[in-house]
Amino acid sequence: MVDDDDLGIEGASPLNDADWVAINKLKRAYESNGAPGLNNEIGELMESDPVRAFRVMRAFFPERMREALDDVIAKMRTDLNEILRHLDSPLTKH
Q1: Is the dihedral of CA 14, 17, 23, 24 positive or negative?
Q2: Is the pTM above the cut of 0.70?
Q3: Following CA atoms 10, 20, 29, 42 in sequence, which dihedral angle do they give, to the nearest 10 degrees?
Q4: CA 1 – CA 17 distance, rounded (Å)
Q5: Do 52 and 66 fall into the same domain?
Q6: 17-68, pLDDT tens digit by residue?
Q7: Residue 24's closest CA among 48, 45, 54, 10?
Q8: 92, exposed or middle or buried, with CB in 10 Å at 0-12, 13-18, 19+?
Q9: At what angle do helices 50-60 and 62-88 cross, to 10 degrees?
Q10: Same domain, residue pair 45 and 66
Q11: Are 60 and 10 in contact (CB under 8 A)?
């Protein structure tokens, strides 16, 4: 198994074996092609398995991913509130 510290992973406990495969693939992409290779591999992972991509990115950047998730939830809440206001509007009642 790869040492968490070598990869800069801060939160490895929720990772499963398939997550480690993805992490090692990202590491190899970075070692062979630098940042462009890493970015390409992250993009492919996000497209093929967004849930795994989130878990892997959370392992590297737990605070940033938590903040990003909070932002998404806040935006969804705002959008939902806007929809509910529109549905409750007198113009939409028959």
Answers
A1: positive
A2: no
A3: -70
A4: 10
A5: no
A6: 999 999 999 999 999 999 999 999 999 999 999 999 999 988 888 888 889 8
A7: 45
A8: exposed
A9: 130
A10: no
A11: yes
